[in-house]
Amino acid sequence: MEDLVIRNARVVDGAGGASFAADVAVTDGRITTVGTVAGAGKREIDAGGHVLAPGFIDIHTHYDPQICWDRLATPSLEHGVTTVVMGNCSLTLAPVKPEGRRKLVKMFEKIEDIKEATFDAAVPFTWESFGDYMNHVRPGLGINVGALVGHSALRF
Length: 156
Prior knowledge:
The chain is α/β, with parallel strands linked by helices. The chain has helices at about 100-110, 115-120, 130-135, 150-155; strands spanning about 1-10, 20-25, 30-35, 40-45, 50, 55-60, 80-85, 145.
C-alpha cells in the first residue's frame, strides 16, 4: 500500500512536454508511480481540477534570520517554492564569533530592514560555525534549504 496517492491530477512534470492526467503515488517520501494507481493509498488526495507540478527553486533569498522562526520560509512555500537558497549578497548568520553578532544584525537591519528587536526575540545565536547554524535551522523545516556562506560573515 502506498503512503500517499494523489488522484485525478493534471500533471506538469517539468520535462517540457504537454500536461497529462494521472495519479501519483508516493512511498517513503519518493514518487513511485505516475500513471494509474490501482490500489488504495494510506492517504489519498483528490486533485481533480488541480495541477500537480514540481516546486519552484528560489536561488536568491535572504531567509537566513527568518528561517530561525519560520521553518516554512513564508510566503515562498505558499507560492509553490519548495527549495530556497539563502546567504545571498554576502549576508549570512554564520560563521560568527560572539563579538561579531551585533555587526551581522546591524547589516541585516540596514540591508533587509529586519529590526534588532526581531533578532533579539527570535535568533538565538547558539552557534559559531556554519555547520552549527545549519544544525540549528534544520529541525522542523517544511521547505528544502540550500545555504551559501556569505563573505561578510567570513570577513568578520
